[in-house]
Specification:
The complex is a heterodimer.
Chain A lengths: L1 E4 L9 H5 L23 H5 L5 E4 L11 H27 L3 H27 L5 H11 L8 H10 L1
Antiparallel strand pairs in A: 1-2
Helix pairs in contact in A: 3-4, 5-6
Chain B lengths: L1 H5 L2 H17 L3 H16 L9 H26 L2 H27 L8 E5 L5 E4 L16 E4 L5
Antiparallel strand pairs in B: 1-2, 1-3
The chains are: A mainly alpha, B mainly alpha.
């Protein structure tokens, strides 16, 4: 678990620089140096008067159990939404006016966001979760010709 | 695994773009970039349909409102699945807004959006028509800076 800075909240009180034992909070890019940060130390998190520093988990608790039925239904909702996204993107491509294109684009973005949300609730919330790893392994074994296998393999190694 | 055969390339693309966002939130930049690549790959496999109208989109939203949301929300409630219920509640509200926007557009055509801006909430998909985005999203209550402005582009 390492600390991270929410730059929107940081008011440059710099107490984190004062308390950090390794200098991890003192960087040029505004973010904390994760390499230097001590696992679970949290001195800066507790010291920050603006609540701008938080801890990022490496591991998460297992998610609430979901029924197979609701998972299937959430995937079905995601399919509905991606179908809508496709239609809206088609309308945007062929639109005769800038406004029709703008509206179609907004609809496509909206449908994509809803699709993503339903997929999260279908069991794919956490990138390091078992469902995601299972899916990546299955993708890797699929027969698709030009599949970017090294991308998938690298993800499996990192997660 | 069965999921993969069931999932369309479009859903795989959405799944990966969502995981990219999740990785960014955890400041895992390399993983985020890899999921984005994978999402683009699946998107490139998707073929956009020809000759579709706003009515086709609206019809799908109506079908969803009439049959999918009631059925699935009931299942989520009986499972006590809070996460799914939350997503369904937002989704249903957004779908109702989409329907009413499209009904209005049907009547007013382009004049509806002539002197105003269009925003989409990056969290729940709510579409807002107005000069400035609302302070918080009326549906999911996220702060207004998460409202993405959709630009008018020439055709």
């Amino acid at each position: 678990m390492h600390a991270a800075r929410n730059i929107r909240l940081c008011t440059k009180d710099c107490v984190c620089l004062f308390v950090c034992p390794t200098g991890a909070t003192d960087t040029e890019n505004g973010q904390i140096d994760f390499e230097k940060c001590l696992d679970g130390c949290r001195l800066c998190v507790d010291a920050c008067p603006s609540h701008a520093i938080y801890l990022v988990n490496d591991n998460y608790a297992p998610p609430q159990v979901k029924s197979q039925k609701i998972k299937a239904m959430m995937l079905e909702m995601a399919e509905n939404k991606t179908e809508q996204e496709k239609i809206a993107s088609g309308i945007a491509r062929d639109a005769k006016s800038p406004i029709a294109r703008q509206l179609a684009k907004a609809l496509a973005v909206s449908s994509r966001i809803s699709a993503e949300d339903f997929l999260r609730e279908a069991g794919y919330m956490l990138p390091q979760g078992d469902e995601v790893k299972k899916l990546l392994r299955a993708l890797l074994n699929s027969q698709q010709q030009d599949l970017p296998k090294e991308t998938i393999q690298r993800l499996l190694d990192l997660l | 695994m069965d999921d993969m055969q069931e999932l369309s390339v479009e859903s795989l693309s959405a799944l990966c773009s969502n995981l990219a966002k999740a990785c960014s939130k955890q400041l895992r930049t390399e993983e985020a970039a890899l999921f984005d690549q994978l999402s683009s790959y699946y998107k490139s496999k998707s073929e956009l349909p020809e000759g579709k109208q706003f009515k086709d989109y609206s019809d799908l939203v109506l079908k969803e409102l009439n049959s999918d949301y009631p059925k699935i929300s009931q299942q989520a409630a009986s499972d006590g699945d809070r996460g799914s219920l939350r997503a369904l509640t937002w989704g249903e509200k957004v779908s109702k807004i989409l329907r009413s926007l499209l009904d209005r557009y049907e009547k007013q055509k382009d004049s509806m959006l002539e002197n105003t801006n269009v925003y989409v909430c990056e969290i729940c998909g709510f579409i807002y028509i107005g000069n400035l985005p609302p302070e918080i999203c009326p549906i999911c209550k996220v702060p207004g800076f998460k409202m993405l402005k959709i630009q008018k582009e020439s055709v």
